[in-house]
Amino acid sequence: MQNKINLETRIGIKGILLTSAILILLLISFVLFGDPLDNWTNSFFQSEPSNLIASLVIGSLLSIDVIAPVPSSILSTAGGYFLGFIGGTIISLVGMTISCLIGYWIGAKFGRAAVLRLVDTKEISGFESLQKKYGDWIIIISRSVPLLAETSVLFAGIGRMKFNRFISMVTISNLGISMVYAAVGLIRRILIHFCLLLQLL
Fold first, then answer.
1. Residue 105 belongs to domain spanning
2. What is the pTM of this model?
């Protein structure tokens, strides 16, 4: 029993260290590239792109959110603004889900090797059992939290969370988030048009 507690404690400490390292890398990317990308995104959408171009840009940028400092909330809201509620929801859902799949693949493909340098095989097994036990709720809760959202999908891959469960959880979470942002974007467009009409009266 004592060995099990010590094992979980070591896994917890090393898991925190690994999480901290990932968060630091993500924070560095946000500091270096966050503002320029935000500025470019804002100027792009001020140019009133066509639906096709808007869809391609929004979907493409959201799909690399796990590895780049993408302003996902702005992009998803812009989806609702330019493409309407249904179109904005779909393009946001697809882009965010692709990003989750990329993160899961990175974690599964490369994360395990990094973890093995910090912990032994027995500890890895314990970490994976904890991931299977709490991973689905962590995925759902963290999807709307910057940085934690990216970290959670990487750890889902590292912990080899069952893929069917993973894709179900991220799809449900991404759908809810996409619907909210698309609705906000659509409401913003309606309000802007309403204000313009009032000015003409």
1. 2-200
2. 0.68
